[in-house]
Amino acid sequence: MNEITERETDYILRHIDPEGDYLYRLYRATNIHLLRGRMASGHLQGRLLKMLVHMIRPKNILEVGTFSGYSAISMAEGLEDGGRLFTYEINDELEPFTRPWIEGSEVADKIVFTIGDAIVEAPKLGTTFDMVFLDGDKRTYLEAYEMALGIVRPGGFILADNTLWDGHVLEEARPADRQTLGIEHFNDFVASDPRVERVILPLRDGLTIIRKKDK
């Protein structure tokens, strides 16, 4: 599989919807002030997430792993009136950076940002979700997936980010590399899960789109 070149990426970005000034500034600030800033979704994936929200038309979205808030804002931009996005970040050290960016966005009224473990806290909401975006700790992807599958509606969608993991899923993971092992176990499990349909897009670091089957 050929990788997309930098020139091709530049071409793509010139021919899709613009990122917008606020998200551009957020992405830049993320890379300046946070470690591993490239974990933020960025222009291409952000516009894809917004488009998927327009297509799925969810009333409630759950995000596992807020990081700097880029993907949450991108998805919230696609929500219709009355829609809500509940996003959880387990790393409380990110809150001083992330909360002001979320609360300063034009879609702040659609986003509920919580510091905490989504695997534990999200089911307590008692909410049925139409769409879930998994982008948290790769070591607990399977646990997050099972949690999400329990609270997403039949016919709803789970999106899992980073499922190609810089190509490390093609290599033999070291026993101590729990992040890669977590992704590998997740991918293998979902590939044979009879409860869902799935497809992996080779976008950035891999995006798996999973549909929970109807009863």
Question: What does it look like?
Answer:
The termini are far apart. The radius of gyration is 16 Å and the shape is globular. The chain is α/β, with parallel strands linked by helices. The longest helix is centred in the N-terminal third of the chain and has 15 residues, at about 40-55. β4, α7 (about 140-150) and β5 form a beta-alpha-beta unit. The chain is built from 8 helices and 7 strands. It has a 7-stranded mixed sheet with strand order 3-2-1-4-5-7-6, sandwiched between helices. The mean pLDDT is about 95.
- Give me the Rg, rounded: 16 Å
Please mark out the parts with pLDDT under 50 across 5 or more consecutive residues, or reply none.
none
Chain-averaged pLDDT = 94
Q: How many individual helices? A: 8
N-C termini distance: 36 Å
- Overall, the morphology is globular
Across the major sheet, the strand order is 3-2-1-4-5-7-6
Class from secondary-structure proportions = alpha/beta
For the report, how would you describe the main beta sheet?
7 strands, mixed
The residue fraction in helices comes out at 25-40%
Beta fraction: 15-25%
Provide the succession of SSEs: HHHEHEHEHEHEHEE
For the secondary structure, the number of strands is 7
List the helices and strands and how they pair.
Layout: H1 6-14, H2 21-33, H3 42-56, E1 60-64, H4 70-77, E2 84-89, H5 95-103, E3 111-115, H6 118-121, E4 129-134, H7 141-151, E5 152-161, H8 178-191, E6 196-201, E7 207-212
Parallel strand pairs: 1-2, 1-4, 2-3, 4-5
Antiparallel strand pairs: 5-7, 6-7
Helix pairs in contact: 3-4
